[in-house]
Design brief:
Layout lengths: L4 E5 L5 E5 L8 E9 L2 E4 L1 H5 L1 E2 L5 E6 L2 E6 L10 E2 L3 E2 L3
Parallel strand pairs: 5-8, 6-9
Antiparallel strand pairs: 1-2, 3-4, 3-7, 6-7
């Protein structure tokens, strides 16, 4: 996992991905998936974030990877969530 992130019990579902320090809007948090040939490989970061209809992050395709990006400023202790759909490159 990227520095400053941890996995713990989620109020949404099972385990979730949480930040231990603030994250600024627009910051690339890390790679969630890699695309190699016809395979999609999930990273540890990609394995623990949960879905939300009002997420604080989004996924974006960059080269052969999907990355998680902060949609807004995120406070320390918040669970990182995305809407389970890849958004177009901004």
């Amino acid at each position: 996992l990227p520095e400053g992130l941890t996995i713990k019990k989620s109020n949404i579902e099972g385990l979730g991905l949480f930040t231990e320090k603030p994250i600024s809007a627009g910051k690339v948090i890390g790679i969630t998936h890699r695309f190699i040939n016809d395979e999609i490989l999930r990273t540890p970061l990609g394995g623990f974030y949960n879905h939300s209809d009002t997420p604080n992050c989004y996924s974006n395709i960059q080269s052969f990877s999907a990355v998680m990006i902060a949609k807004r400023d995120i406070e320390a202790g918040e669970e990182l969530t995305t809407f389970y759909q890849i958004e177009p490159l901004k």
